[in-house]
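worker-3 :: picked Tetratricopeptide repeat-containing protein
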Amino acid sequence: MKFVRLLIIMILISSCSSKENNGSIAQQADYNNYLEVEELSTSSKYFDLWNSKIRPDSMQLTSFGIVGGEYSRYFQQTGNIQYLKKAEQSLKRAVEIAAIGKAGYYRALARNFISQHRFKEALQLTDSAMAINGSKVEGQRLYFDIHMELGNYTLAEKYLDSIRNMSDFGYMIRLAKWNDYKGDLDTTIKFMELAGKKAESAKNSELMLWSYTNLADYYGHAGRIKDSYDHYLKALAIDKHNAYAKKGIAWILFSNDNNPKEAIRILDSVTETYRAPDYFLLKAEIADYMGNDLVRTKNLDRYFTLVQDPAYGDMYNAYNLGLYLDETKQYDKALNLANREVMNRPTPEAYSWLAFSHLRKGDKEKAMELMDTHVYGKTFEPALLYQAAEVYKANGIYDKVKELKGELIGALYELGPHMEKQIQDL
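worker-3 :: tokens ->
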């Protein structure tokens, strides 16, 4: 499951750096209280009140906006794709009937489509919002977010410059993301820390939660594992149900603390109530490392069952690519899906999967052409660098393999313990 692991790591961590020798960090006493299984409520008197006002021919604009926002919140809490689709339906109806405030509904629907990886449609909605003369800053923020997802980095930088405001939380977090893309991790952390302080001074728990989980990720990239762990705990102190923070702690246990059994225990508690497919895939990956084929197979089956739901659309293309290439050996299917992903979002990541699919199909020259043109020198993500190293090794370009291998050895925390041998064998 080597390439599934690469995808999981790509989602968890998106830049490489040297890892310190941290020893064991995570302690059960710190997080056990957050692991109690508790089914989250996906309704409330507030939600029921507004939802009850919606009828097939309803013109209750306020109802559609509020209900759409609540469905989005339920999706974040449960990972259930049906809530994201229900939010889409509510927001589409709001767009249809709004005479005032239509630009805001366009932007809300665009954010929904970003979550669904429907980036080109999100761009069209943002264009529609801007044509109405809605909030220029909100539109420019969205343009930055979308163009980063589409790999249009020159345009993204243009929109980032257009919202420059060092006292604005939204600008600072995007500036951090931009520096992460450029590979400047120290600057990335600096701006995320500033954003976190701003959220704290405003006592905005939602922004604090967002800041802490992102800072935890960035600290992990930098090899500051204890700082990463502490910030996941700070996030859980705000929201004890936060699945992402628990997943981050599970990764620390697996990759830093050499405690995969405890990592599985944490993830098992998460997936009792949070059912996003990638969590089951991560459990399968850790079980594979442990040699526990029963747990591995059980969680792979759960993943495959969930992603059969057409509501997911293109959200899990990259995960499925890893499985086609490594688990099921469906190379033609992988190549078709990789081409689709490049059409959806021509990023270095998408092109790396396309190159890797060509390599697995036996066309190493085409794979190297794609890596040279679209990936090499354009990304700092360890998982993509590993794919590039495999392609260059197959083509006998050993100077590049040696260079990439040096970077990958410094990224073992990001790549996980099961990747050490593969890196050494490059």
